[in-house]
Amino acid sequence: MFSALWVALFAIFGAGLIAHIPIPAMAGSILLIAWGLVDHRGIRALLRVSRAEFVVMALTCVATLLLELQTAIYAGVLASLFFYLKRTSQPRVQHWREGDEDILRVGGSIFFGASHYLQVRLQRMHGAKVVIEAQHINFIDYSGVEMLHQEARRLLKQDRSLTLRGARPPVVEELRKLEGAEKCPIRFED
Predict the structure, then answer these.
(1) Claim to verify: residue 68 and residue 102 sit in the same structural domain
(2) Looking at the chain, which runs of residues are DSSP E strands?
(3) How far apart are CA 3 and CA 36, in angstroms?
(4) pLDDT of 2 strictly over 80
C-alpha cells in the first residue's frame, strides 16, 4: 500500500521527470521488476515434485510469450486436462487370488477414459468368481456401467460371476439403473 501511494504521487507530480527517462531504461526497470515476481524456488520445487505440472507451466509460459494471452491460457488448460486424463485413465488396480476368487481392488473412478483399461484387466481373470473391491470407486459413468454389465454377462455365459464388494450406494444405484435392479447381472456384497 505504501509503495503504491509513492508510485501514484510520483506519477502525478513527477510526470515531467518521467518524460526524460530513456525508454530502454524504463523497459529494463520493468524487466527487473518482472524477474523479481518469478518464484524461482517454487519452479524448482515443481520440477522436483511433478514433471507433468512443470511441463504445463513451461508450455503456458512459452505460449504466453508467443501467442495471444487467451490462446496461451487455453493451451495451458488443455495441457493440464491431457495430463489429468492420462493419469486417471489407468486407475490403481491391485490383483490377488483367494481360492477360486480373482479379486481386483480398484482405486479411482470408472469413467469413459478408464473403462477400456479396466475391461482388459477383467478379461484376464480366470477365477470362477471375479470380485471388484469397490470401496474406493467414487464415481461411475455410463461407459463404466455398460462395460461392467458386458463383463458380467460374459462371465455368466461361462458360469462365472462378477461381484462388487463394498460399493458405495451411488455406484450401486448407477449400476442398477441400466437394466433395472432385478435384471442387473452384477452381484453386490457389503
Answers:
(1) no
(2) 92-98, 101-107, 129-133, 161-165, 187-189
(3) 15
(4) no
Cell numbers 489429468 correspond to 84
Closest to 117 in 3D by CA, of 142, 158, 86: 86
- Number of structural domains (the chain) is 2
What domain range includes position 179? 92-189
pLDDT at 14 over 80: no
pTM value is 0.68
Strand duo 101-107 + 92-98: pairing: antiparallel
pLDDT of residue 181: 84
Predicted confidence at residue 86, as pLDDT, reads: 86
| CA R_g for the chain | 28
**Domain CATH for 98:** 3.30.750.24
Name residue 107's amino acid.
G
Q: What are the cell numbers at 52?
A: 507433468
66 plus 130 within the same structural domain: no
| Residue 166 belongs to a domain | yes
Q: Which three cell numbers stand for residue 72?
A: 496461451
Residue 25 CB: number of other CB atoms within 10 A? 9
CB atoms within 10 A of CB 96: 10
DSSP 68: -
